[in-house]
Amino acid sequence: MQISISAELRQRFADAQRVLVLTGAGVSAESGVPTFRGGGGTAVWKGMPFEVISSGQMLERNLPAVWEWFDYRRGVLEALHPNPAHYEIARWQECFPEFTLVTQNVDGLHQKAGSQNVVELHGNVWRARCTVCRLGHDMSQSARPESCPGCGNALRPDVVLFGEMLPPGAYEFAASRAAQCDLCFVIGTSALVYPAAALPGVARSAGAYVCEVNPERTPLSDLCDEVITGKAGEVVPQIGL
Ligand code: OAD
Predict the structure, then answer these.
(1) For residue 123, which atom of ligand 1 is closest to its CA?
(2) Which residue from 1, 30, 31, 36 has its CB within 8 A of the most atoms of ligand 1, so it is best to mutate?
(3) What pLDDT does residue 40 have?
(4) Fewest CB atoms within 10 A around its CB: which of 98, 127, 130, 200?
(5) Rounded distance, CA 45 to CA 135, Å?
């Protein structure tokens, strides 16, 4: 597929000092991770829209059902691998004096591709945390424990559910980096979930050049300086060429 990247973007990429990348589910689509929205549809699991099963209310009402959904998602993710977009974004961390990767994804594929210091706005499905003492527990190498290894209370996925707050400080840190960046990429997000979707606007208001990569238009498209219509795995590796 012919992808058109402007000479201006190439120049800005070559000159950039501070780069911020915001990613969403679309960056993992070519790895086989289903997106939540897009293509005219939304995800449903056992007849429940994902906003219902992935909600703070459901966690309070039926924690086992929430675990069933996240256990299922980890099962799907286990066999999947990063795609060329994840690897290229990981390479970018070496290319600029300051680089910040902010993701809404909970799949851990950026880290698997080598990205470091990823700002995870919505948590990570490979971690559990205690509902009482908040102790975190890594599940990437081992099975999910029945209860908190520290205090014995119930564990929950370390993921932000609908109706819940973001991890303390995560958005504030991302917004401070957005306010200082000179180049911002928005890759594979429907830009419907706030506050993540506000970050490109913060960057734009501070004078950054903002570029969106998505096969579909989003509510942010009009705000962007450049919109590259295409799949992340095909477009992203071509940006820095
Ligand atoms: P969505 O599923 O809402 O949007 C996915 C976006 O990716 C859509 O705009 C698609 O057009 C685009 N897309 C699809 N395939 C693509 C590809 N190959 N390359 C690039 N883009 C592609 O996902 P998010 O915007 O990430 O929260 O959703 C935001 C949040 O809503 C998620 O983090 C999740 C959900 O509730 C939590 O799980 C806490």
Answers:
(1) 39
(2) 36
(3) 65
(4) 98
(5) 29
Atom of ligand 1 nearest to the CA of 105: 33
Tens-digit pLDDT profile for residues 135-175? 999 999 999 999 999 999 999 999 999 999 999 999 999 99
- Do the bridges between strand 136-138 and strand 123-130 make them parallel or antiparallel, or are there none, so unpaired? antiparallel
8 Å CB contact between 219 and 186 = no
Q: Please indicate, yes or no, if residue 39 is contained in any of the structural domains.
A: no
Domain encompassing residue 16: 7-33+81-122+166-239
Residue 155 lies in a domain: no
Q: What pLDDT does 45 receive?
A: 83
What's the CA gap between 106 and 123, in Å, rounded?
6
Report whether residue 28 contacts ligand 1, using a CB cutoff of 6 Å.
Answer: no
pTM strictly above 0.70: yes
State whether residue 172 is helix, strand or coil: helix
Q: Which atom of ligand 1 is nearest to the CA of 24?
A: 26
Counting the structural domains of the chain, the total is 1
Mind telling me the catalytic residues?
Answer: 122
Mean pLDDT of 191-206: 96
214 CB less than 6 Å from ligand 1? yes
Q: How far apart are the CA of 128 and the centre of ligand 1, in A?
A: 23
Cα 187 to ligand 1 centroid, rounded to whole Å: 9
61-100: pLDDT as tens digits: 999 999 999 999 999 999 999 999 999 999 999 999 999 9
Residue 225 sits in a domain whose CATH number is: 3.40.50.1220
